[in-house]
Specification:
OB fold (Dihydrolipoamide Acetyltransferase, E2P), conserved putative lor/sdh protein from methanococcus maripaludis s2 fold, 4 domains, single chain, 333 residues, four-stranded antiparallel sheet, disordered N terminus, alpha+beta, 4 helices, six-stranded antiparallel barrel, Elongation Factor Tu (Ef-tu), domain 3
Length: 333
């Protein structure tokens, strides 16, 4: 029994160091889909985490407290710039408008009367019929009346502005991605009612270590992979000028296609240099527990050769082989 265990351990160690296992029948036909490996210049990459965001995102809220009377959009609704998103009750605004208009009427009449009185005092003063102080008092009353009219007109414009707040429109074309209220709810200033995101290209916002970010440049293309396995090559659009003091990382934005969903997690593979080595497609790797190998075509047929793997390259589509393969070896894909 002890001798058998010793042989098993020695056999496993040999396989892990680049040995071969004839688990594939030598008589079996050699698959047509093969690859001859060659040493080449490989690009080392560092995986960094990030999130997909829209170029424009607006949390639409109101500037006054009022009840929502109309909310014609829901999650998924596509809107154009200027499209009505929310209508608020304007009963208080109507009452304030009536008061403002009445104040303007009163102030206008007072100003007109003061102007007539000022002209009359000027005429009488020229005839020495009144004292200078009376003329000055008349002009002071005219100035006060004009100020009261300006104040009333300002109040009227304030009501007009409040009326515009009662109808909230889309700030840009896009799609509604969140809705927090229903008709009948009371909207409060600063509290979002709906959220609109632009429908154009997306950004992958990546948190990159400062040392790695220093080697990046705008328009450099990196590989980005989503959690669902979708992969694309994304050009870098913007690089922050400094690191975030809390995360100690630099924000890097890479452009993604418009059909990528916002909010999902992605991994960006940022290039960090080149080196010489052998790399094979990750799909060609055979795994047996803790062992990794590849199917190699030999004169005797197809055998599994155990290899030692290194880092992923090309966005983890390929993997570096540290030992067990040499240039010229032919592997099965």
């Amino acid at each position: 029994m002890i001798r058998r265990l010793t042989l098993v351990v020695l056999s496993t160690a040999a396989l892990a160091c680049g040995g071969e296992s004839h688990e594939e029948s030598p008589a079996a036909a050699i698959p047509a889909n093969t690859l001859t490996v060659q040493a080449e210049s490989l690009t080392a990459t560092t995986p960094v985490e990030g999130t997909v965001v829209a170029r424009q995102r607006a949390e639409v809220s109101t500037r006054m407290m009022a009840r929502i009377t109309s909310l014609p959009v829901d999650v998924g609704t596509r809107v154009r710039q200027g499209h009505v998103l929310v209508r608020l009750g304007s009963e208080d605004i109507a009452a304030n408008r009536a008061k403002a208009e009445a104040a303007v009427t009163v102030a206008t009449a007072a100003r007109d009367e003061a102007a007539k009185q000022a002209v009359r005092m000027d005429t009488l003063l020229a005839q020495d019929a009144v004292a200078q102080v009376q003329r000055d008092r008349a002009h002071l009353q005219l100035t006060q009346a004009e100020s009261q009219l300006q104040l009333a007109e300002a109040s009227s414009r304030e009501v007009d502005a409040a009326q515009s707040y009662a109808t909230i429109r889309a700030p840009f074309s896009g799609v509604v991605v969140a809705r927090y209220h229903d008709v009948g709810d009371v909207a409060s200033p600063g509290m979002p009612i709906v959220v609109v995101e632009s429908a154009g290209p997306r950004d992958a916002v990546l948190a990159v270590p400062p040392g790695v970010a220093a080697e990046l440049a705008v328009d450099l293309t990196i590989r980005v992979r989503a959690a669902n396995g979708r992969v694309t090559d994304a050009p870098i659009r913007a690089i922050a000028g400094g690191a975030d003091p809390w995360t100690r990382t630099v924000e890097v934005k890479a452009e993604l296609p418009a059909d990528w969903s916002t909010g999902i997690s992605v991994t960006g593979f940022v290039p960090t240099g080149t080196f010489q080595g052998v790399a094979i497609p990750a799909s060609a790797v055979v795994r047996r527990g803790a062992l990794t190998g590849v199917r190699v075509v030999t004169a005797d047929g197809v055998v599994i050769r155990w290899v030692r793997l290194g880092r992923g390259v090309d966005g983890d589509d390929r993997v570096q082989v540290l030992s067990g393969l040499e240039s010229g070896d032919r592997i099965v894909l």
